[in-house]
Design a protein that fits this description.
- The longest helix has 14 residues.
- It is built from 5 helices and 7 strands.
- The protein is α+β, with helices and mostly antiparallel strands.
- The protein binds magnesium ion.
- Magnesium ion binds next to β1 and α1.
Length: 160
């Protein structure tokens, strides 16, 4: 049995809006996120962590922004594809931990839904998925509400 760990980071600019998709969940919000896909900053960081753990590059390589197939696409669909790539290589997820840095919207009320969604797509128990939210204490781009960022760590186990 081989264990592999990976780290991921992403940041997206905020934009006036009515909702933001974060952690695979559509959250009512006065700020949206700018991006080529649905701009789900948490899933982008998580996918980079998963691909990094497997030594398989990053989401930019697998889903290039220049490819119109990925315009506006749900990041959950991309995460499902990442999971297929991992399963083809005999990896399964042990656990993941995601930290989202946002001044607003408040994420705590949506955390359970994010965990549920991620556990389903990653095919793990809910206690193998952690989603945390923090503010940036009013400083930096996240603190000023100009952006939302996310950090993720993923642990994979390879069988065979
Ligand atoms: Mg991104």
């Amino acid at each position: 049995m081989t264990l592999r760990v990976g780290v991921g980071y992403d940041i997206h600019r905020t934009t006036p809006g009515t909702f933001a998709v974060i952690g695979g969940v559509e959250i009512p919000s006065q700020v949206g996120l700018e991006g080529h896909s649905d701009a789900d900053v948490a899933l982008h960081a998580l996918m980079d962590a998963l691909l990094g753990a497997a030594g398989l590059g990053d989401i930019g390589e697998h889903f290039p922004p220049s490819d119109d197939r990925f315009r506006g696409v749900s990041s959950v669909v991309l995460l499902e594809r990442v999971m297929e790539i991992l399963r083809e290589r005999s990896y399964r997820v042990v656990n993941v931990d995601v930290a989202v840095v946002a001044e607003r919207p408040k994420l705590a009320p949506h955390r359970a839904a994010m965990v549920e969604r991620l556990a389903q797509v990653l095919q793990v128990e809910r206690d193998c998925v952690s989603v945390k939210a923090t503010t940036n204490e009013g400083v930096g781009p996240e603190g000023r509400g100009e952006a939302i960022s996310a950090h993720a760590v993923a642990l994979l186990e390879r069988s065979g």
